[in-house]
Write a structure and sequence with these properties.
The chain has 200 residues and is α+β, with helices and mostly antiparallel strands. It is 48% helix and 22% strand. Strand 3 and strand 4 form a beta hairpin.
């Protein structure tokens, strides 16, 4: 068998294993899912790992094959809850990102919101003033090509975690990436999320 075909078969196998790990085990991080999948597949050369887009495609296939109704209902519930939170947080210009937006949310997926505020403390004060329990943390993302450490407030809710990542108001037009070489994160305003819900 030609070497290129063998590599493509390995990439495809790893993509499908990573998709299963994300769908069934709640792994949200693509890199972690691909590394674990490569170990399971016995592939030592991690330079040949599939792209995130390849894993996304495998994830869509997995969900369509194994849990189409459950997935559709859970995704709708997560998007409805995201829309509710976005409406409440309207003053911070919220955007939905991640697997709830792109439709690949696994059964343990949480909601990821990007907020844009003049002062990150304003978000924390809003949560305190409204009696909303949260866990503070940090995340490192590339904003406009610059690696930044951003505050994150995680809410534990019935549908799962809601992660609020706070960026500066001036960052609204800057691309946000998980890695320097990666694609900008897809994001949607409230009206776009409501349109997704209306589509059913």
């Amino acid at each position: 068998m030609p070497r290129d075909r063998t590599r493509n078969d390995e990439r495809s196998r790893i993509a499908h294993l990573a998709a299963r790990l994300m769908a069934e085990d709640g792994i949200e991080n693509y890199a972690a899912a691909k590394r674990k999948a490569a170990r399971q597949a016995g592939v030592p050369d991690t330079r040949q790992l599939p792209t995130n887009d390849e894993v996304d495609e495998a994830l869509r296939m997995h969900q369509a094959l194994y849990r189409p109704v459950e997935h559709r209902e859970r995704l709708r519930a997560l998007r409805a809850h995201a829309a509710q939170r976005m409406s409440e947080l309207a003053r911070f210009n919220p955007y939905l990102t991640g697997s709830v937006l792109n439709g690949n949310a696994g059964k343990y997926a949480g909601i990821n919101l990007q907020l844009y505020a003049d002062n990150a403390k304003a978000v924390e004060l809003y949560l305190i003033d409204n009696g909303i329990d949260y866990k503070p943390g940090q995340i490192r993302l590339f904003v406009g090509g610059e690696l930044r450490t951003l505050p994150v407030y995680t809410l534990e809710e019935e549908t799962g975690e809601v992660q609020l990542i706070v960026l500066g108001a001036d960052d609204l037009r800057a691309p946000v990436k998980t890695s320097a070489e990666g694609k900008p994160m897809e994001r949607a305003k409230l009206n776009a999320v409501e349109a997704l819900l209306a589509e059913g």
